[in-house]
């Protein structure tokens, strides 16, 4: 082996070989791929090999579609056949709710150009004659899905990498990872056969170790929350009627899947009683090995399989496969560069790594070579995990829940229950007393709505279908109360980052699209862009001192945004970046009566002249000194109030008592309302505020998203500026438009297709009810030629609902209320 490589990839499964293959395609030939035993000796060799393309996110679906493209041509290109069988797939609906899910997926597929068709139970049986139609309401048919041999796939990818110069070396156990000044320097390797030890210096190290990834990560000081779960499936002997062209079939209501195997069936599934494995560490000799069959645990899957394919009951079982696979706490891949620069992770494939292998390899290779992936990988980014995932018990609880509900229908706004409560605001007890219905994000307990407000709303507003699940009339009541009076929102979970030091201004000025070199006490809304001009972060920056900024971003975005900042910070000590989220409470006080309410408890001048919009000052509220930012995410007069956490309960109690006093209720209106995050979302839709991760992503530029007002090309150079200049000269590829649906109770959840003149022209990014304006609103990226005033339709669970493209925001377009 060489003593130096441009990149070292650890792990010879489908993930590692795909990364090697795609790095070689991009011209990186000085690459070494290491495996602790033989290639595919981890989880790859015992995968069932199913490849399905339509997934829950745009990015994941695109990755799977690329996989099919590659698998079709890989044998001809490399000379090694991965045994790609493009036989199509069926996904059955054996319940009303599942049938609704299939209709939604069928609509979504149209926006990708996938040839997916919603078929009847009997049409499904025509394609898979062994199935019964008992209880089947319909199925999805996708003819371009299929299955392959996972070992053959890895061998073909490895051959493709080798042909371009990549060194593939087996029986090499990585025992150390060098890190200096926060950057990876290489790996220490021991030959598993000879015991010889050597060091390979490298600029980039990729941890593609699958279920072994956590122990590899620890060598670099990086936490990778993956739990091996024992996954079982079996092979039968020959069954009459089974042939090589038989499609794959999934019946999630019966927890099972099927594919053909040498005239018999391969059958497995996901039981509701998972079996975590080897939590204290994977044995050093566990290579190319399986676990003993666990027939009692398989009985639940077997029973569902027999209900759907009775021939399974009489078929001889030739082999049971029980093998561990790495699962993550949210059932998404773990991809990207860690906090150790140059140390990348591609692991946690959650039993769909074979389908995703090609896309994973391409995106990680692009990330390494170009500094950024091609697609929005934020939901898979390793930076999404906070410090709580250093806890094995917490990670285990979350991952177990994910596996146990793998085939469940997950309604919009569904909340996970495992590991809760974990992180709570100082007001948690008070919020419970008010009947808070809590949701969770990044470990934080956050009120979605309050039970005490339900009587002020109406169930007649309940959205139709799935959007009506996990809903309450309190949401509308809280939204309307904010427009009419004043509402207090506990936003302590918002991520708060401090950037300080003599180089702070120059640093944030280089990253921000807006001009943030402003006087102390000014608040700036801005995006942080990638080199393509895409929006990597959406936040506010407040200059609190000449050499100090407070950055506030979303709860779920905090770790990722922190990672983005640290990735770009200078190494000369002139900038200090700190996560101060837990040290500060944040309460939003918003509504036309906000100034009146705070005037009851603060001696400070809060008038518009003394405290204008987008400024910040230290003020006193009762006995508490707070940093007040006059900013809003709901489109009303008000402030965000920040104080040290130990003052949080007193600050809340002071404001709540003032709002409950006679002085605050002298006109008959409620003095104060407690509001939750679902009301915030309804209010921001009315005001046209974008939500990062849905309306705006790394794939969207500020100009396309309608955020050009927050870009200052004339301020000097900044990251992404050149791309924005090119984009402005070329004209927009798309524009984010607001849609008003004809039916208030028909509510978009995201990804619904939009058609105009009979043609599908885009998909919804986010939607919901605007209670103050009485309209069902949605946002969608549409072609630039689509103009305000045009009519269109949105497919809401199989029903085309009329809509009008309108100019946003639909509420307070002139911005008078926020500047009152």
Describe the fold and architecture.
With 820 residues, the chain is α+β, with helices and mostly antiparallel strands. Helix content is 24%, strand content 28%. The chain has 18 helices and 37 strands. Strands 1, 2, 8, 9, 10, 11, 17 and 18 form an 8-stranded mixed sheet that branches. Strands 5-6-4-13-14-15-12-16 form an 8-stranded mixed sheet. A 6-stranded mixed sheet has the order 28-29-30-27-21-31. Helix 1 runs parallel beside helix 9, helix 2 crosses helix 9 and helix 12 packs across helix 17. The radius of gyration is 28 Å and the shape is globular. The chain starts with a strand and ends in a 14-residue tail after the last strand.
């Amino acid at each position: 082996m060489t003593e130096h490589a441009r990149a070292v990839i650890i792990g010879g499964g489908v993930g590692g070989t795909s990364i090697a293959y795609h790095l070689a395609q991009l011209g990186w030939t000085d690459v070494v791929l290491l495996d602790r035993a033989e290639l595919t000796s981890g989880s790859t060799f015992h995968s069932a090999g199913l490849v399905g393309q339509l997934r829950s996110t745009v990015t994941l679906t695109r990755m799977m579609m690329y996989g099919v493209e590659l698998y079709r041509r890989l044998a001809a290109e490399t000379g090694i056949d991965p045994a790609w069988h493009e036989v199509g797939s069926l996904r059955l609906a054996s319940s009303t709710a599942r049938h609704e899910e299939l209709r939604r997926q069928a609509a979504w597929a149209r926006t990708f150009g996938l040839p997916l068709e919603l078929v009847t139970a009997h049409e499904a049986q025509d394609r898979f004659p062994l199935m019964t139609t008992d209880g089947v309401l319909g199925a999805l048919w996708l003819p371009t899905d299929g299955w392959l041999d996972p070992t053959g796939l890895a061998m073909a990818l490895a051959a493709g990498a080798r042909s371009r110069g990549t060194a593939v070396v087996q029986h090499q156990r990585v025992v150390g990872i060098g890190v200096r000044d926060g950057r990876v320097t290489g790996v220490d390797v021991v030959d598993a056969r000879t015991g010889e030890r050597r060091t390979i210096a490298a600029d980039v190290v990729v941890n593609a170790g699958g279920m072994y990834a956590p122990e590899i990560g620890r060598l670099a000081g990086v936490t990778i929350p993956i739990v091996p779960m024992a996954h079982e499936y079996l092979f039968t002997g020959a069954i009459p009627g089974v042939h090589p062209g038989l499609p794959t079939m999934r019946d999630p209501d019966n927890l099972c899947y099927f594919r053909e195997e040498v005239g018999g069936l391969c059958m497995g599934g996901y039981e509701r009683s998972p079996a975590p494995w080897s939590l204290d560490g994977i044995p050093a000799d566990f290579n190319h090995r399986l676990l003993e069959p666990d027939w009692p645990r398989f009985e639940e899957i077997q029973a569902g399989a027999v209900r759907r394919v009775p021939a399974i009951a009489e078929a001889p079982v030739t082999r049971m496969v029980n093998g561990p696979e790495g699962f993550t706490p949210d059932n998404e891949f773990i991809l990207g560069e860690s906090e150790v620069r140059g140390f990348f992770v591609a692991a946690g494939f959650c039993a769909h790594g074979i389908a995703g292998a090609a896309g994973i390899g391409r995106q990680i290779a692009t990330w390494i070579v170009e500094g950024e992936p091609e697609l929005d990988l934020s939901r898979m980014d390793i930076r999404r995990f906070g410090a709580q995932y250093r806890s094995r018990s917490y990670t285990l609880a979350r991952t177990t829940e994910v596996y146990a509900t793998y085939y469940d229908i997950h309604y919009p706004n569904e909340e996970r229950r495992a590991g809760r409560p974990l992180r709570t605001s100082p007001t948690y007890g008070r919020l419970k007393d008010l009947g808070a219905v809590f949701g969770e994000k990044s470990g934080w307990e956050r009120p979605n709505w309050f039970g005490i407000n339900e009587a002020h709303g109406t169930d007649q507003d309940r959205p139709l279908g799935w959007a009506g699940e996990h809903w309450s009339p309190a949401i509308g009541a809280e939204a309307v109360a904010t427009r009419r009076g004043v509402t207090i929102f506990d936003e302590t979970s918002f991520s708060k980052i401090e950037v300080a030091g003599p180089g702070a201004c120059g640093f944030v000025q280089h990253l921000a699209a807006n001009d943030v070199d402003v006087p102390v006490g000014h608040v700036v809304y801005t995006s942080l862009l990638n080199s393509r001009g895409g929006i990597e972060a959406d936040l506010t920056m407040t200059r609190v001192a000449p050499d100090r900024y407070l950055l506030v971003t979303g709860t779920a975005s905090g770790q990722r945004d922190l990672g983005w900042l640290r990735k770009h910070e200078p190494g000369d000590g002139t900038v200090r970046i700190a996560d101060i989220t837990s040290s500060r409470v944040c309460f939003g006080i918003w509504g036309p009566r906000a100034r009146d309410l705070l005037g009851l408890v603060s001696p400070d001048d809060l008038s518009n002249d003394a405290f204008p919009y987008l400024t910040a000052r230290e003020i006193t509220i009762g006995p508490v000194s707070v940093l007040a930012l006059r900013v809003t995410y709901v489109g009303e007069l008000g402030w965000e109030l920040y104080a040290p956490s130990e003052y949080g309960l007193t600050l809340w109690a002071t404001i709540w008592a003032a709002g409950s006093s006679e002085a605050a209720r002298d006109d008959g209106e409620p003095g104060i309302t407690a509001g939750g995050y679902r009301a915030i979302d309804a209010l921001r839709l009315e005001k046209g505020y974008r939500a990062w991760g849905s309306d705006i992503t790394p794939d969207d530029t500020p100009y396309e998203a309608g955020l050009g007002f927050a870009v200052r090309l004339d301020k000097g150079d900044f990251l992404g500026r050149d791309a924005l200049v090119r984009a402005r000269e070329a004209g927009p590829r798309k524009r984010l438009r607001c849609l008003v649906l004809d039916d208030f109770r028909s509510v978009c959840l995201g990804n619904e297709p939009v058609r105009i003149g009979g043609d599908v022209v885009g998909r919804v990014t986010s939607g919901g009810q605007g209670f103050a304006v009485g309209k069902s609103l949605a946002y969608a990226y549409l072609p630039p030629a689509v103009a305000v005033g045009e009519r269109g339709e949105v497919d809401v669970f199989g029903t085309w609902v009329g809509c009008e493209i309108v100019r946003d925001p639909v509420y307070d377009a002139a911005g008078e209320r926020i500047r009152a």
